[in-house]
Please model this.
Amino acid sequence: MQHHTISALVENSAGVLSQVSRLFSRKGYNIESLAVGVTDDPAISRITIIMIGDDLAAKQMISQFRKLRPVIYVQEMDAEQSVHRELLLVKVKTETKDARDEVIQISNIFRANIIDVSRGALTLSITGDTEKNNALIKLLEEFGILELARTGIVALERGPYTIHDENK
Amino acid sequence: MKMKSTQALFECLLEQGVDTVFGYPGGTILNVYDEFERNGYGKKIRHILTAHEQGAAHAADGYARSTGKVGVCFATSGPGATNLTTGIATAYMDSSPVVFLSVNVGENLIGRDAFQEVDITGITMPITKATYLVRDASQLADIVREAFAVAASGRPGPVLIDILKNVTAEEVDFTPLPKEEHIKHGRLAALANRASSPLKHPAPKEKDLETLLQLIQKAKKPMVLAGGGIIRSGASKEFTAFVEKLDAPVAVTLMGQGAISGRHPLCTGMIGMHGTMASNVTTAACDLFIAVGTRFSDRVTCDLAQFSQQAKVVHIDIDRSEIDKNVVTAYHIIGDAKEILKALCDRMPQYQHKEWLEQVDGWRKEPDRQRSGMLDPKEVFASIDRQLGDDVIIATDVGQHQMWAAQYYNYSRPGQLLTSGGFGTMGFGLGAAIGAKIGNPDRVVIHATGDGCLRMNGNEYATAEYYGAPVITVLFNNGTLGMVRQWQTLIYNKRYAQTDLDRGPDFLKYAAAFGMPAWRVETAEQFDEALKQAIQCGQSALIECIIDIDEKVWPMVAGGAPITQFLLK
Ligand SMILES: Cc1ncc(C[n+]2csc(CCOP(=O)(O)OP(=O)(O)O)c2C)c(N)n1
Model:
C-alpha cells in the first residue's frame, strides 16, 4: 500500500465534484485527500487526489476517473518529480504566557504564521507537505488544539513540464 | 433559423436518423410532446407509448441491441424519470446505446421540492456514460449531438439528458448540421480533442499486434473467449475468421452469444456459472486465454483467484478501465475488436491444434440431467430452432428460462439473443422484445419468460397489440421463482422461502384480456403445434409451457467456487 498522487483537469461545471467523489466511494477507493480549485482558465478546475493503494488499484482508479465525461485529463504524479503542499489552519489553546511563548517559538521553527491572536488562543497557518504539517500538529497537541482545518494536498510537477504537455 | 427549442430538439433527432421514440408523457415534458402534433414531427418520428416507463426503457434498449442503432426514450420528470432507472442500469451494464430524455421542473422551481421534481441527473450518474442538465436553450442542440455521439462511441452505453421545463418553451437560433459534421463543432469538437477522448480509438499498433502474435505462436493450447464487445463492434465475421485461423476452441459469454455460430465446430458453448463442461474445463487447461470484448464478470470467472491460473491471459477490449479490473492479464490490446481481429488475422499463419482440439472434444459432454417426465425446456428450444432457425430474435427475462435460452439455442449472429446479462433485470424481456420487433418488423420475435418475470411487466402486451408489433411469448411456467428455488434446493437445504408462485393469474385469461391467442401445452408435440399457429396468427401470442417445479439449469458452479467445481454436472 502506497500513497498515489493523482492530478486531473476537469470542466468547471456544476456536479463535477460530486461525480468524482461518488465514483471513488462507489468503487471503494481509499481517498486520503481531495482538493479542488479553478485554474488559470476559468472553465477548468484542477483536482488533486491522494489515494492509498497498490499500483494496480491506482491504475484502475485513473482509468475509471478518465472515463467521466467532465474529466479532461488525468495523470499520476511521481512523488520525487513533484512538489506537494497543503494549507493548515490550527487554533491552539494558550491560556498562560508561557504557553503562548512556547507556541510562538514552535511556530517560528516551523515557519508557520500567526494569523490571529486573542486572549486564550492563537491561530497558526502553515503551508507544507503533509508530514511537516502533521509534525506541527503533534507538537501543538500538548497545548490543546481547539480546532483545525486543512485544505487537502495540491501538487505540481517539478521543472518546466506541465500537465498540458501530456494532454495533447 | 429561429424556432422553438423543442422543434430544434426534433430537428436534432432527425439529424441522427431517429425514426422511433419510446416514451410516456407527463406535465413537465408536455412542450416536447406537443411537437409531435404542433409541427407534425409525429409523421416523421414514430412515438411508441408504452404501458410503463420501464417498458419504454427496455424497448428502446431492445431496439438498440437488435438494430445496432441508438435507442431513444422520453419520460416526464419525477416518477416518470425514476421509472426509467432500472432500464437505464440494464442498458449500462450491457453497454447498450440509448439516449434517455427527460424534462425537469422549470428553473424557478428547481431545488424547491416542487411537484414531481427529482434530481434525475444525480440519480443516474453512476448508471450512465454521461448525464446532461440543460438549463440554457442555446446549448440544447449541441448537447443532443454530443449525447448521441457519446452513447454510440467506444464502449456504447446509455446517456441521459434532463431539460428544464422553461428551456422547452424558449426560442433558439438553430443551425442544421449534418451528422458527419457534428464532430467538428461545439462541445463534440472539444471532446474529440482530448487526449483520452471517448470518441476516438487509435488503430492497433504494429508492435502490440506483434507481441500478441508471438504469444499465439508459442501457445500449444490456446483458447478464445467471445464477449459482448464482439456483438457491439459487429465483429462476428472477423472473430470467426480469427479463431478458424488460430484453430482454437471458443467459449462464449452470455453477452457474447452470436459472436460465432453456436453450431461452429470450434465453439464449446457458454462459459461460467452455467457454462458447459467443455468451456469451463478448457479454461482451466489452456496455456493461452484470449478474451475479446468481455469484462470477466463474476458469473464468468467463478472463483477469480483461480481463474485460468495456468494460462497467459490476454485481453482485447475497447475500454481501458476493463483491463486488469477483475483478472490481471499478461497482455492487453485496447481498441475496437473488429479492427484488431482483422489486423491479427491478416498477419497470422493458419495454425493446426489438432491434438489440443481432440482433447477439448473429450470434455464435450451432455450434462447428466435428471428428467422429470414433463415437458423438457430443451425440446421447446429445439422446436423453435426447427421452425424459425437463424431468423428469429429471442428476448429473455431473467432466471432459469434465460439460461435455457442461452444453452439450448444456437445463436448465429449478433443481436439475435437479447438478454439482461449484467444487471439480471426481471421484466426486461417483453419490453425488449417489443423494441426488437419494431426495429426488425420482418423477423419473428420470441419472448422467453418465466411466470415470475411475466407478472412484473406483462402490461406491455397492450403496447405490442396496439402498435402491431407481435411477439410470441414462450412462458416456462414452473409455478415458482425457478432460479431462486434452484439455489434453495442446492444451497439452502430445500427451505423454499417465498418462491412458490401458487397463485394467479390464469395466463390464458391474462392473454385473452389483451386480445391475444394463447395455448397451454404439456408436451413437445403440443408446443410444436402451438408455435406453428402462433407464427401464423400474425399477432402477439402466448404459449404457456407447463414444466416441472424442480426443473434445473445444468451444469452449475456454485457462486465463488472454482470454474471446474460443478455443483451439478
Ligand atoms: C427485478 C428483479 N428482482 C429479483 C430478481 C432475483 N431473481 C433472479 S431469477 C428470479 C426468479 C425468476 O423467476 P421466473 O420468472 O419464474 O423464472 P424461472 O427462473 O422460473 O425461469 C429472481 C426472483 C431479479 N433478477 N430481478
